[in-house]
């Protein structure tokens, strides 16, 4: 039996529970033994641990993939620890090179502030902001100055920096690396020194930067933080990580009917991974539900439960009930009570152009592709003629199961 297993077996029930919650869905917890000792010390002294998560406001909107780490923060917050949502207003001016094959353009101060304004409202849908310690890293980074920056840079070597995969790949391929990009992991690590963090969370693509925090804390004589990396959430397609650029995302501020329907569109296999990373149900509850499905229960029942939980988290109970009813109506081929009203000139108008102008498809070619697949209806009838032209009047147009518009042609 390893020393960690032995130490964990002798820990209190509360500490064992905290370890299980910390590990749930995580990619890595480093070093586990140190985190166990921190939890035990916190229980003995009554002093909560400090849990840090840095966010660079590079875009104003968050999606469910971003909430994987936020969910873990909320779980640790509910255990009584101090969570620190850190807005990287200083580091964003450098630009995070993580996973990049080119230099990331830094944002202007105005862009950073505009994006940050919406962050806290969205983060507050998951974390209890009244119990959180909100910080901005310009608090300590701006006063550092040139002298402080040079002293900080002296604490790490170029050889160690080039161990980072994206840097080494770009160097090997002759792709430019700006000197200022080396400063980003140093400044992120310095945040941990300034905050005296016990644990820093991030995605798996942030491992190098998180370890930098441990190194700099040791250099400053502090007890080094532990690091907890969470996996990158697969998007609706179940293949690529959730990303707005790939269109496989669910934004946390999307309308409740859209959010509910999108969750129901994922595969039965992906559903269980989303349960682990996005649900607040206990692992025992999820295992029991999975066993019921394996025993013959319709997996759609489990998916509806997940869709309700996620939608209710961001929109509340009443809106979720309405979203579920809306989905059921659409599934039966019914028309929702409220759909967009669009007025278009140019009758008679070709079906492809109509769908594009009504905002139901991004392009005419996409409209024609959907018609070939039987995914377009006009007044409930499937459209099979790609050359169809609609005369003046009002029709209800449907694309797929979720997109409707009442179009008046003039």
TrEMBL record:
Outline the extent of the RNA-binding S4 domain: 349-410
Q: Which reaction does it catalyse?
A: tRNA(Tyr) + L-tyrosine + ATP = L-tyrosyl-tRNA(Tyr) + AMP + diphosphate + H(+)
Q: What function is annotated for this protein?
A: Catalyzes the attachment of tyrosine to tRNA(Tyr) in a two-step reaction: tyrosine is first activated by ATP to form Tyr-AMP and then transferred to the acceptor end of tRNA(Tyr).
Q: What PROSITE patterns does the record point to?
A: AA_TRNA_LIGASE_I (PS00178), S4 (PS50889)
PANTHER family registered for this protein in UniProt:
TYROSINE--TRNA LIGASE, TYROSYL-TRNA SYNTHETASE
**Pfam families membership:** S4 (PF01479), tRNA-synt_1b (PF00579)
Its quaternary structure?
Answer: Homodimer.
Binding annotation for ATP: 244
Q: What class does this enzyme belong to in the EC scheme?
A: ligase
Q: What is this protein called?
A: Tyrosine--tRNA ligase
Motif: 'KMSKS' region; annotated at 241-245
Q: Name one GO biological process term.
A: tyrosyl-tRNA aminoacylation
Major location (coarse)? cytoplasm
Q: Which family does it belong to?
A: Belongs to the class-I aminoacyl-tRNA synthetase family. TyrS type 2 subfamily.
For whether the record's keyword set contains Ribonucleoprotein, the answer is: no
The alphabetized UniProt keywords are: Aminoacyl-tRNA synthetase, ATP-binding, Cytoplasm, Ligase, Nucleotide-binding, Protein biosynthesis, RNA-binding
Q: Where is this motif: 'HIGH' region?
A: 57-66
Question: Which GO molecular function annotations are given, in alphabetical order?
Answer: ATP binding; RNA binding; tyrosine-tRNA ligase activity
Q: Where is the protein situated, by its record's location annotation?
A: Cytoplasm
A single Gene Ontology CC term: cytosol
Q: What is its EC number?
A: 6.1.1.1
Tell me the organism's taxonomic lineage. Bacteria, Pseudomonadati, Pseudomonadota, Betaproteobacteria, Burkholderiales
SUPFAM superfamilies, per the entry: Alpha-L RNA-binding motif (SSF55174), Nucleotidylyl transferase (SSF52374)
